Amino acid sequence: MDYIEEIKGLKEQMTFLEDIEFPESVRNIVMAGMGGSGIAGKIFQEIYTKKPVALTDSYSIPDFVNEDTLFIGVSYSGNTEETLAATNLAMKRGARVSAITSGGKLGETVKDAVIIPKGLQPRSAIGYLLNPVLVGAGFDVSNFNETREVLSRMDEDRREFEQIAAEIGQYRKTPVVYGTPPFSTIAYRIKTQFNENSKIISYWSYFPELNHNDTVALENDYRKDEFYFMVLRSSFTSEEVARRIKVTSDLCKIKFREISAEGYSLISQLYSLIHKGDYISYYLAKLRNIDPRDVSIIERLKTELSNVDTNK
Amino acid sequence: MDYIEEIKGLKEQMTFLEDIEFPESVRNIVMAGMGGSGIAGKIFQEIYTKKPVALTDSYSIPDFVNEDTLFIGVSYSGNTEETLAATNLAMKRGARVSAITSGGKLGETVKDAVIIPKGLQPRSAIGYLLNPVLVGAGFDVSNFNETREVLSRMDEDRREFEQIAAEIGQYRKTPVVYGTPPFSTIAYRIKTQFNENSKIISYWSYFPELNHNDTVALENDYRKDEFYFMVLRSSFTSEEVARRIKVTSDLCKIKFREISAEGYSLISQLYSLIHKGDYISYYLAKLRNIDPRDVSIIERLKTELSNVDTNK
């Protein structure tokens, strides 16, 4: 499948409504996952506020994990070493363990795993990876219909995304993505898409936190003109944060390119911001004559990791 | 007080052992704080694993906050608007509310507040801001003695820090700080010190997560030579992560400047990494002929925020 078809395929994922069971009795949730799979947990942690959600994106799990914990291992391939290690520890600890995966060792190990379709890049499967927790946690299922329509409309007219990619690539700028609550972590998702699709360095932060540090740099940095600043806006952006965006732009004399969420529901707006990042990073790769799908260095890294002689 | 005296003063903060009470009955902890005060919560969340720790760095608090929650508002000035808003919400929700502050409105509002000395930049008060939660949570108090000695030794010989600052500043590079567990968030602290002290843009990430995204960019980025890459190492860096640092460096042909933790205990190593970041960012400011203490734009921003006419 051509990679742009993978990206366009996000709307189809909105009909995938399998769910992870969220038992009432559970006192906390821990999600494990790395990179394109781990982003599901990072997004969920920001928008789900009924119970504490902790994340692990390493080999270990927190000490508090026990039978009162719902532990969800997320790995598209099912073979991510960090996520497998963490999931095995959670099983030993007696946690209620679930998983979201297309198969692999994780699919074999976890009985209650939600099995999602194979054959995509993990980062293109964000709907499959995230929807099972959204549905399980009680987000309104009817919003996935709206999301499907919103994404379809975006697929039809992609000129804005090509335009932004050109603004970045033409002058070889480094994209900076600033999120706003409740979509701070979408800025991280878009940063990783610039990394993997466009093969360029990109950084992220979020309002209002960045007003306490980045702002000082934005006024004085010696390379300021080499960065391209984007800010994510939505109908959920509070009045206070909207003011902060304006004042920061004025004081630091920086133009923020606004990336606006589409649709009405939280889910539609969330996926629309993700999808805009998908397209912008895709077109930037094309502009650079780089294959956006290729992330073979991650595979080479895994091979090298298993070869390194540690003298142990 | 000259700003370098503020930085050197960190070792004295190691004798400040007032504690936030952590009742057994509490089921989760929520810490609120922004910027130089918020970093205390971010660091604590990574190293404390006995109970779930959630953070808020905005105006709101999670829905799960109730009488089973220990809520800790952290604001050096005591007047940070986001933290005050969040703390007031937590009080209404019946949480067990505590605070760490030098006074201000937060000191007036919260009866059980730990009151810390005034007169510093919030970012120079990291010991005052973090120690009360470390002590309260049961970290070994004797380690603060070791930390004091470790920091004193660092204050005596600062050539390494000047050297690194020169390597960054000489070629006007953008510093990138990569953390390693359990000190991933120290990378964020150092990034913010580059922002506030050196007035330059800086970015951070951490192993092993960055192997799933940044790595692709590190191989191919068009501006790679304009960044300066640092990696935080400690005796807690796992074998797996150490391998990842080596393989990433080899594959991407990037030299990481290692910033090594000093001392034996977790607390010493944590503060030693913080302190190295303090000094490197300080010397980079000096090299740029910039006042490292001045962050007046943050004050100007606050004034502007209260002036903006929102037509509402």
Structural summary, described in words:
Chain A is α/β, with parallel strands linked by helices and 312 residues long. Chain A folds into two domains: 18-136, Rossmann fold, CATH 3.40.50.10490; 154-287, Glucose-6-phosphate isomerase like protein, domain 1 (Rossmann fold, 3-Layer(aba) Sandwich), CATH 3.40.50.10490. Helices cover 47% and strands 14% of the residues of chain A. The first copy, chain A, contains 13 helices and nine strands. Chain A has helices at 3-8, 10-13, 35-47, 81-92, 104-109, 126-136, 143-156, 159-170, 184-198, 214-220, 239-252, 266-287, 296-307, and strands at 28-32, 53-56, 69-74, 96-101, 114-115, 174-179, 203-206, 227-233, 257-260. Chain A has a five-stranded parallel β-sheet, with helices on both faces. In chain A, strands 7-6-8-9 form a four-stranded parallel β-sheet, covered by helices on one side. In chain A, helix 4 (81-92) links the parallel strand 3 and strand 4 (96-101). In chain A, helix 7 (143-156) runs parallel beside helix 12. The longest helix of chain A has 22 residues, at 266-287. Chain A is globular and about 55 Å long. In chain A, 57% of the residues are buried. The mean pLDDT of chain A is 96. Chains A and B meet through helix 3, helix 9, helix 10, helix 11 and helix 13 of A and helix 2, helix 8, helix 9, helix 10 and helix 12 of B.
